[in-house]
Amino acid sequence: MAHFAEIDSNNVVLRVLVVADEYEHRGQEFLANDCNLGGTWVQTSYNANIRGKFAAVGDVYDEVADEFHPVPQFDLMFVESEVIETPAIEEAPAE
């Protein structure tokens, strides 16, 4: 079985699907046209034999390096800090 990751216009992985071995050589065409899914599909390897790592939802595909990369943790923390307000912590009165 072969695995293909669908990427959006920003090269972010949307989903990963399995394709039968007989369609591996034309996975992009098979998924986009034969299965009527459209989109851009890039093969990924469960064993990380190609493209650096197995693609996961949210990973980014680097076309130049031809590899999938996870979203850096600091980017996720930055986004969360803009969205989530942290309440002030008050000290308990001394007894």
Give the arrangement of secondary structure elements:
Layout: E1 2-7, E2 13-19, H1 27-34, E3 40-44, E4 60-62, E5 67-69, H2 73-83
Tell how many strands the DSSP assignment holds. Answer: 5
Beta-strand portion reads: 25-35%
Structural class from helices and strands? alpha+beta
Instruction: Give the N-terminus to C-terminus distance in angstroms.
Output: 66 Å
Largest sheet properties: 3 strands, antiparallel
Question: What does this protein structure show overall?
Answer:
This protein is α+β, with helices and mostly antiparallel strands. 20% of the residues lie in helices and 25% in strands. The chain contains two helices and five strands, in the order ββαβββα. The protein has helices at residues 27-34, 73-83, and strands spanning 2-7, 13-19, 40-44, 60-62, 67-69. The strands form two sheets. It has a three-stranded antiparallel sheet with strand order 2-1-3, with helices on one face. A hairpin with a 4-residue loop joins strand 4 and strand 5. The longest helix has 11 residues, at 73-83. The radius of gyration is 20 Å and the shape is elongated.
What are the defining features of this structure?
25% strand, elongated, three-stranded antiparallel beta sheet, 95 residues, alpha+beta, two-stranded antiparallel sheet
